[in-house]
Design goal:
Number of strands: 0
Distance between the termini: 112 Å
Helix content: over 70%
Structural class: mainly alpha
Length: 224
């Protein structure tokens, strides 16, 4: 029983997590893109530091090469002059320079390899982040369309404002016209008082007219 409750609880949590992820998907995408951009920016700074070290090692190596060439010339001159002591001292310095140049050349090679790898990784990550930005624009457009469609669907539901407005319009338009209703009431009153029958007989010439007509007014005015 406890296992069943635990399974149901985990399932409910998973559904809630999925629902929250769907609801905040665009915000999560933007956050992940910002994190990716921060990672790329950090890698760029690391690459810049490696390049500076690479250039520093190359500059030191070049300087050692120049000093070594100058010192070799001096040693040759000392040998030509027969000064073995100074020549040996110069040779010892040249040997140290060559050993240092070997170490620095190895360091420079490793740095160059690391720079090449990191540069390639930065370029790849930069392209992927650029793709993410473009895809995020498309995702935002799709999300906006879906949200708008859901709002429209809710507005078209049976209990929606549109439906209620339609019912109110129908109620107003189907109500009886007060003016027409008044006319019908007059007809009923006339029928009940037999005025309509009296009017019909007078109109047929039986007895005096029940209403003054325009023609009666004109006849009276002519005879006045």
């Amino acid at each position: 029983m406890l296992d069943l409750i635990s399974t149901l609880f985990r399932g409910a949590n998973a559904k809630a997590t999925e629902a929250a992820t769907d609801h905040f998907a665009i915000d999560l995408i933007n956050q992940k893109i910002r994190e990716a951009e921060a990672g790329v920016e950090g890698a760029k700074h690391a690459l810049a530091a490696l390049i500076l070290r690479q250039r520093g090692e190359q500059k030191t190596l070049d300087t050692l090469g120049v000093r070594k060439a100058i010192l070799e010339n001096r040693v040759r001159e000392a040998l030509a002059a027969g000064n073995e002591t100074l020549a040996l001292e110069g040779a010892d310095a040249i040997a140290e320079m060559e050993n240092e140049m070997t170490v620095r050349a190895e360091t420079l090679a490793r740095l160059s390899e690391r720079v090449a790898r990191l540069r390639q990784s930065v370029e790849k990550a930069h392209r992927r982040v650029a793709d993410l930005r473009q895809n995020a624009i498309a995702a935002r457009a799709i999300d906006l369309e879906r949200r708008s469609q859901r709002r429209l669907n809710r507005s078209l539901d049976g209990g929606s404002a549109i439906h209620e407005a339609e019912k109110l319009i129908q109620r107003v338009t189907e109500q009886d016209d007060p003016l027409e209703q008044s006319g019908v009431l007059d007809e009923i009153d006339n029928a009940l008082s037999h005025r309509s029958t009296e009017d019909n007989l007078a109109a047929a010439g039986f007895g005096p007219a029940t209403k003054t007509r325009a023609q009666d007014v004109l006849t009276r005015l002519r005879n006045a």
